[in-house]
Write a structure and sequence with these properties.
The complex is a heterodimer. Chain A has two helices and nine strands; from the N terminus they run E-E-E-E-E-H-E-E-E-H-E. By secondary structure, chain A is of the alpha+beta class. Chain A has one domain: Aldehyde Oxidoreductase, domain 3 (Alpha-Beta Complex). Chain B has one domain: Beta-grasp domain (Ubiquitin-like (UB roll)), CATH 3.10.20. Chain B is globular. Classes of the chains: A alpha+beta, B alpha+beta.
Chain lengths: ~140, ~80
């Protein structure tokens, strides 16, 4: 299984080409984009700020995917997570999994997202106002 | 030993990282004792914070040495 992990501070491009070696072997491609919603605790916001402990986050995501690959055999998995300011409507995380059959691709993406929220050292550290400036933390 | 703070723990510690030194190896309880002596505002967060040693979550029995990089990991919220 090929694994690509990126933590980036720029817009995620979900249209990056898949490896050409997958052509003819892949029967299912499952994609997920996690977008920033326009409200937080009932208040309108302009975005969210994310922070990562980058080397550990990359290492743990790799380990999680290798582990999940035993249960959901995939050919290729790509994960891209944003850090810094992410505006409403932009993707904070993008996952694509390629497999021979759909159950493995869908299963890996779903289970990975559960593990991401449990173990990967990435944090939402603040909210941005509608003008894009950081808002003070809630009391 | 290099200590890293993330998210709201940076505010509690009033820094992003620090260096502490000691002889030999210590366990998590001894490390916390030292951290809370230096950064008492971390105390309220301790129950929810996991320690990571050199990019791997510490487990029961993990020992920490002066050459390690130790991160204090508050509850994560990626995605």
């Amino acid at each position: 299984m090929m694994i690509e992990i990126s933590i980036v501070n720029h817009l995620i491009d979900p249209h990056q080409p898949l490896p050409t070696t997958l052509v003819g072997r892949t029967g299912a491609v499952a994609e997920f984009s996690g977008l920033v919603r326009g409200n937080e605790d009932g208040q309108p916001i302009g975005g969210l700020e994310y922070e990562a402990y980058r080397p550990m986050a990359e290492q743990i995501m790799h380990t999680i995917i290798e582990d999940l690959g035993h249960r959901h055999p995939c050919l290729f998995v790509r994960v891209i997570h944003r850090v810094g300011a992410v505006a409403v409507g932009e993707a904070a995380v993008y996952v694509v999994a390629c497999a021979v059959h759909r159950a493995a691709a869908l299963g890996l993406v779903g289970d990975f997202l559960d593990r991401l929220k449990q173990d990967v050292p990435i944090w939402k550290t603040g909210t941005l106002g509608l003008a894009g400036r950081p808002l003070p933390p809630s009391p | 030993m290099r200590i890293l703070f993330f998210a709201h723990l940076k505010n509690a510690a009033r820094c992003t990282s620090t260096e502490i030194h000691f002889d030999g190896e210590i366990d998590a309880a001894a490390l916390w004792q030292r951290l809370l002596a230096d950064y008492p505002d971390l105390k309220g967060y301790q129950p929810s914070v996991r320690l990571a040693r050199n990019n791997t979550y510490a487990v029961a029995g993990t020992r920490f040495s002066d050459a390690d990089e130790v991160a204090l990991i508050p509850p994560v919220s990626g995605g």
